[in-house]
Write a structure and sequence with these properties.
Elements (H helix, E strand, L loop, with lengths): L3 H8 L3 H9 L6 H14 L5 H8 L4 E6 L5 H16 L3 E6 L4 H13 L4 E4 L6 H9 L4 E4 L11 E5 L1 H14 L5 E5 L5 H16 L9 E3 L4 H12 L7 E4 L2 H13 L9 E3 L16 E3 L2 H16 L8 E4 L2 E3 L13
Parallel strand pairs: 1-2, 1-3, 3-4, 4-5, 5-11, 6-7, 6-8, 8-9
Antiparallel strand pairs: 10-12
Helix pairs in contact: 1-2, 1-3, 5-12, 8-9, 10-11
Bound molecules: alpha-D-ribofuranose (RIB).
């Protein structure tokens, strides 16, 4: 294996000078820098990052653990983390927990073993005790998207105003004249879904509409559960004229269920989602939804993490970013006969 010493001998400089050229830790003449880089090219030198990380106590790698790497929401958050991580000189290691707590714990442990400098977590249900363990190991952590019950005090977090988003979606449907509005929830143990349902209920209450639990069906944030839940709602004796789904994938499944039942969207049934993933603008009909600032969430989380890694000794920072309604073709006025 080619070493820094081989590069130094070939370039006619010291190993220290090679290190200064590689890490820009001290100015060197253009001629020396050229000779060192030429030697590295000639010898096809690859720096030993593991040795470097042990020597410097940093790996210039950050870990990211998400519950579903196939879901475009997490892909867009990861894009933000990677964009800031790259700009700061960090490699991002993406781990998919699949929503499984045990798998999530395994990944967190492996990332720590591999000396990542910090971790961004979108919790699958990670208990806050685990985050305390990470803190005990002085591994900087930032929690994104999902509030953790009893979250460890010293953890930065980047969330959105889910309750307001649920209210905005439902209020939009109410303004279109809908009174029987169904709701397809995400997993009850995840705070984003619970908070969106709270916003749904608040909008109904403010409109003087009694909460009807038969119009609320549980999903799991995946397309298929949206299809199944919407089919269940549409088979009720008094089916809803509109459905608010707590994420876009379930809303897309609901569109499929409406079509399968011979209904037109939005003429017979309005459907609204949550996330505004890029695909939402290209469904048929294009999906009305609540836009989360996904890329910005990722960038902010990565910035907070890098500050911690670099030793920022400041109180934990908790950001709740705003969301907004994006009206597209999947929602429309309630049909006269149903009003
Ligand atoms: O689509 C996946 C959902 O899980 C998103 O709404 C996001 O908020 C996450 O909680």
């Amino acid at each position: 294996m080619v070493t820094m010493r081989d590069v130094a001998e070939r370039a006619g400089v010291s190993v220290t000078t090679v290190s200064h050229v590689m890490n820009a830790t001290r100015p060197v003449s253009d001629d020396v820098a050229r000779r060192v880089r030429q030697a590295m090219d000639d010898l096809e030198y690859q720096p030993n990052l593991l040795a470097r990380s042990l020597r410097k106590g940093q790996s210039l790698a950050i870990g990211m653990v998400v519950p579903d790497s196939v879901n475009p929401f997490f892909a867009e958050v990861a894009h933000g983390i990677e964009d800031t991580g790259f700009a700061e000189g960090y490699t991002v290691v993406l781990c998919n927990s699949g929503g499984d707590l045990e798998r999530e714990l395994v990944y967190v442990s492996k990332l720590v073993e591999r000396q990542v400098d910090g971790i961004v977590i979108v919790a699958a249900g990670l208990s806050s005790e685990r985050i305390c363990d990470l803190q005990d190991r002085s591994v900087p952590v930032v929690v994104v998207d999902r509030r953790l019950n009893g979250v460890a005090a010293g953890v930065d977090s980047v969330l959105v105003d889910n309750e307001r988003g649920g209210w905005l979606a439902t209020q939009h449907l109410l303004e279109l004249g809908h009174r029987r509005i169904g709701c397809i929830t995400g997993p009850f143990d995840l705070t984003p879904s619970a908070e969106r349902v709270t916003g749904y209920r608040r909008a109904l209450e403010e409109a003087g509409i009694a909460y009807d639990s038969t119009l609320v069906v549980r999903g799991d944030f995946q397309h298929a559960s949206g299809f199944t839940a919407a089919s269940q709602l549409l088979s009720l004796p008094g089916p809803p004229t509109a459905i608010f789904a707590c994420n876009d994938l379930m809303a897309m499944g609901a569109i499929g269920a409406a079509t399968a039942s011979g209904r037109r969207v939005p003429d017979d049934l309005s459907i609204a989602g949550f996330d505004d993933v890029r695909l939402a603008a290209f469904t048929n009909p294009a999906l009305t939804t609540i836009a989360q600032p996904k890329f910005e969430m990722g960038k902010l989380a990565a910035s907070l993490l890098v500050e911690r890694i670099k030793g920022a000794d400041i109180e934990p920072r908790h950001y709740t970013l705003d969301v907004h309604l994006v009206v597209r073709a999947s929602t429309g006025p309630v049909a006269r006969e149903a009003a």
